[in-house]
Amino acid sequence: MRVHVTDLVSGDRLSRDTFNQFGLHVLSKGTILNYADISKLQQHQIEYVEIENRSSAATADMPAARTLETIVNPKWLPTVQPLYESAVTSFKNIYDIAKQEGVVNKQEISDAVQPLLDNFQMERDVVSLLLLLNTSDDYTYQHSVQVGMLSYYLASWLGYPKEEALLISKAGYLHDIGKSKISHDILNKPGKLTEEEFDEVKKHTLFGHDLIMQWFGDEPYLAVSAVQHHERIDGSGYPYGLKGEDIHPVAKIISVVDIYSAMISERVYRQKRDLLFVLKELYRMSFNELDPHITQTFIKHMIPNFIGKKAKLETGEIGTIIMTHPIEFFRPLIQVDDQFIDLTVERNYVIQEIYL
């Protein structure tokens, strides 16, 4: 059904991809709209969109949406941040118990992640979440929480129903549980690992599989994701060097978000990298190492979240991202003071950093 943007309500689902008057992609088919999305459509001067027929029952089940002001100006952070920090602390405890006793407490995992998931399901601006919540502390545990969160989003963007997306999210949270069996000194070594140390790190995939099978049995996606999330479709991964279709689809999902979270995080041996730069790296990897459809779906849905963010150019100039390009994802239109710089035309400009 065709609806004017002023008549949209939170919970409406787009039935077609939406483009602005310049042909630039704004929102994807299947997007469940919230007030931030509706605001984005208005900012792009889009008047009408196509949505699926509304179901009164489904609309009644929708969580209460935040106001537009709350989403554009993220005052929700005081609500989400304690839940995020609590989940990180809980995962530290889960890892410690797994290391000391070889036990993974299923109920503790559910208690740690469910409040966070309830809030993340209402928040679609993933870039803001990562910029606001990502810190240099407790990398291993933050990484687990981020991969769980991003796995949920990516599974949803790929069309998995909510129930499956939640299971995939759980697999993301647990993908690195095998690291509880790896020496802390190796995991936090500030320099390059020796060949023997790297061989030891690789074992976390096998350890994770065994721990999950012991405590969760054949619960969908968990064990296979733990053992396969470092496999690559060209056969260059580990532990088994699997290729293409031999790798489980959910493990392919977790591979993408695992790399993204790892690269945007600060480590003892490496500074974090810019969110947009890492998407470029994923795009490069989608031609040989990562599943192209999964990876490019992730990129396509992440890119619109950069609209409205600040961009520091290598020239030192700072502007605001106004529009993104449907093909040249990483060369948006940027406003610097009263000047508009189209990076698809001005090829000598390069974005150095993205921030709020």
From TrEMBL:
Any Pfam family matching the protein: HD_5
Residues in HD-GYP domain copies: 118-314
InterPro entries: HD/PDEase_dom (IPR003607), HD_GYP_dom (IPR037522), HDIG_dom (IPR006675)
The name this protein goes by in its record: HD-GYP domain-containing protein
Organism listed in the record: Paenibacillus protaetiae
